[in-house]
Amino acid sequence: MIHYKGFIPILVCTKRIYMNILFVRLSYIGDILHATPAARWIKEHYSEAKLHWIVTPSMVELLKNNPYVDEIIPWERDEYEAHSKKLHIPTMWRMWWELRDKLEPYKFDVAVDVQGRLITGLVLLASGAPIRLGLGGTKELNWLFTNYKAKPSTDHVIKRYIEVAELLNTAVTEHSDLNVSSAVSEDNVKPCITNGVTGKKLYHMDFFVPPNLHVWAEEQWKSISYDTFLERSEVEKPLRVGLVLGTSWATKEWPQEKWYSLIKSLQYRANFVCLGGPKEATQYKPLMDSLTVDGLDKIMLNMLGKTTLQEVGALIESCDVVVTADTGSLHIALALNKPVVALFGPTDPKLWGPLTGNFKVLVNDELDCLGCRKRRCPKPDQYCMSGIDSVRVKKAIFELIGDKHGKV
């Protein structure tokens, strides 16, 4: 801004008093939730920083109402990847320049990439940020785009992401031109808000359900008919069990006959909500049909393909316990502090599974190939998941919540 004093122009520079940060984790449900502790760490340690999270549009709902995210920037990551697979170079070039023009007005000081792929490296480049934090040991040339790298770690992915965020301390120390207000606590862990509960939970994921959806979820439960043919007089208030059907990988899925067996074993003491997307609505129709034939649809909320991500969160939050394989809603349940029975096979729970909360992880201990990360199982009957018996799952449920709803 220019002021005039007499005839002599005096230039007065106004300096921005906060650090502008671009946080990069584009997709998907579980991965984004795994990254929320790192974003929270940044905001708790640099309270005046402005954190902008770039994410694929279908995932925006996961970050709404998050007090540690100042702005959500949607970008069509899936569209870019689709063109990349077909080598549509002109379209990719155009989309990258459009992204660069979109990010340029923010004047980012720092970009934080916890995803570590070529596409996220290109986002770092488009951000124009001079300080770029990322993971070490990445593939797809991602390392070319970062100038601060966390040492490769084999620990849980949430811890890896926080290690990237912690690089910000070094960057701030080495760049005196960054005008920051540091709020680092002595024990390196500041109290965090966990859905209204304050506590020192460095690794706890964040997901926030709007209050109006709590009422909506209760209305869904009221729609279940309490038919007397089930003879549930011994149960004063049925247990609410969330069942997350299906995953993004066929090898991670628990067989439909196992779900059926679990529901049958709990029918006299529980009501259920089945959760999943449009794919699961088609895939699990045989299960739903079998339950209808048995009359169990009267104690079942079939919400497959009928909910938004925030509505899924509201229904999960209204449950007493959730049973799920390794999929996005597992992490929503953990973020909402719900008791969870998590079923794992081809993915390693030490890397991707529950880290905080009230949970039981079940695996088929008879196998030595667990955590193979194969999307097609070479063994008959996909035994890593089919080998987890419904009796074990039922037992785990009551070990988590206590036997308040009748004998096991």
From TrEMBL:
UniProt cross-references to Pfam families, sorted A to Z: Glyco_transf_9
Keyword Glycosyltransferase: yes
CDD domains in the cross-refs: GT9_LPS_heptosyltransferase (cd03789)
Organism: Veillonella dispar ATCC 17748
Keywords for the protein's UniProt record, in alphabetical order: Glycosyltransferase, Transferase
GO cellular component, one term: cytosol
One annotated GO biological process: lipopolysaccharide core region biosynthetic process
Protein's UniProt name: Lipopolysaccharide heptosyltransferase II
InterPro entries: Glyco_trans_9 (IPR002201), LPS_LOS_Heptosyltrfase (IPR051199)
Molecular-function GO terms, alphabetical: ADP-heptose-lipopolysaccharide heptosyltransferase activity
UniProt keyword Glycosyltransferase, yes or no: yes
